[in-house]
Amino acid sequence: MAEITEQIAKEVKEIIIDFFANECEVDTSEIKDSTHIFDDLDGDSLMFLELIEIFKEKYDLNIELKTIGKYSVKNPVRTIGELISMQMLIIEHENAILNIS
Length: 101
Hints:
Number of strands: 0
Radius of gyration: 13 Å
Mean pLDDT: 94
Low-confidence stretches: none
Distance between the termini: 18 Å
CATH class: Mainly Alpha
Number of domains: 1
Oligomer: single chain
Strand content: under 5%
Largest sheet: none
CATH superfamily: ACP-like
CATH architecture: Orthogonal Bundle
Helix content: 55-70%
């Protein structure tokens, strides 16, 4: 678990935007917090798994995919902004993310 600093928040946003720009072949300037991952970028669930692995490695996270899956069922992610927020919660709380109300 890590405290979310301004630097971490900036890194998370940059990593996510760069990832989707690369994977979906769009310019980073076209990706905003309100950009819909599925409708606007033709993203898919495999991209989420790739991102999770990137963040697990970068921040040495101990979180199970089933935990993220359970959290996502109750808190679906549709936009880049929602994904950024969820990823910061994962970094901050890891497996305890399910205890957040």
